[in-house]
Design goal:
Distance between the termini: 34 Å
Strand content: 5-15%
CATH architecture of the largest domain: Up-down Bundle
Largest sheet: 3 strands, mixed
Number of helices: 8
Structural class: mainly alpha
CATH class of the largest domain: Mainly Alpha
Order of helices and strands: HHHHHHHEEHE
Number of strands: 3
Number of domains: 2
């Protein structure tokens, strides 16, 4: 329980950091857009504004998912993270479409608007890169500890921001040095493509979780090895997993000596459950004990031995 509480505090800290950085970057880039009129800066501004909305939703999801199970939600509230992550992917995809459309329109225009105050814009984008790097490093640390899907999605999005920010600096520098503005639209178009790819990746992960897709094969293999090697366990079957937010739900039937006492069977099962939780601290584990050698009941055809 203490470890779960620590994970919740880390997740909330990452959510607050994301909101703070997005708010600062939105303000800086709004000023930079007014100074430079650069479409690459506009694309970055739209991305940061979207980041702010998404980060606020992510923080709300993290706070809601941190609520303990109750009478109506016996398995907790962690699916809220997946629902918000799916919403994030939709917002990001729409943003990518708008930016891409604007970039193509400017590329096809015979009189694209000129860029101004490129030096100030480059300073703002440089500050944005530094802030984003700091945030991504903290988010990655939190994801390693907690496995939060919302924070992982947020981190992936911010990491994807780095390339467009570098591209914006490059396009502003080329405009200042050579007067070429077309690079700005090309950078914005590339940023839109990266956003779309990130959106699809985030959406797939969230959709898989909401549809109760099995956990990663590595987790299944690890849990299966623990079950198969545990003293007193003669076999196992019906190993099932699903994910909800940062929690992996694991259930399995273990086969025990039917001649031993109920207390002895309970001790084996409880020790085995603790071992799985030690190996996978973000798991929720349910084990059912079966006597070894018992055939499936005819009214239970779904059981696989």
């Amino acid at each position: 329980m203490a470890q779960r509480s620590q994970y919740r505090r880390l997740s909330i800290s990452a959510g607050l950091a994301s909101v703070t950085v997005a708010l600062v970057l939105t303000g800086l880039k709004l000023w930079a857009l007014g100074e430079t009129h650069a479409l690459s800066v506009a694309a970055s501004l739209a991305d940061s504004a979207l980041d702010l909305i998404v980060s606020l939703g992510g923080l709300a999801a993290i706070l809601y998912a941190a609520k303990p199970p109750d009478e109506d939600h016996a398995f907790g509230h962690t699916s809220a993270e997946d629902l918000v992550a799916l919403g994030q992917s939709v917002f990001i995809l729409v943003s990518a479409g708008v930016i891409g459309w604007a970039a193509i329109a400017r590329l096809l225009s015979s009189t694209p608007p000129p860029l101004t105050s490129e030096g100030r814009g480059m300073i703002v984008m440089g500050v944005s890169i530094l802030l984003t790097l700091g945030l991504v490093m903290w988010q990655r640390h939190v994801v390693q500890k907690t496995g939060s899907r919302v924070i992982a999605a947020d981190s992936m999005h911010y990491l994807g921001d780095l390339v467009p920010n570098v591209g914006a600096i490059l396009s502003l520098w080329i405009s200042a040095q050579f007067g070429v503005t077309g690079v700005d639209s090309v950078v914005a178009l590339g940023a839109a493509a990266m956003l779309a790819i990130s959106a699809l990746r985030i959406g797939k992960g969230a959709w898989d979780a909401l549809m109760d897709r099995s956990a990663d094969p590595e987790i299944l293999q690890s849990v299966g090895k623990i079950l198969g090697d545990w003293p007193g366990v003669y076999g196992y079957h019906d190993l099932k997993t699903r994910t909800a937010g940062s929690i992996v739900f694991i259930s399995a039937h273990i086969e025990l000596d039917g001649e031993q006492t109920l207390e002895e069977a309970h001790e084996i099962s409880a020790a085995l459950r603790r071992a799985i939780l030690m190996s996978h601290p973000r798991a929720d584990v349910i084990l059912h004990q079966d006597p070894v050698g018992v055939s499936p009941h005819p009214d239970d055809p779904s059981r696989k031995r």
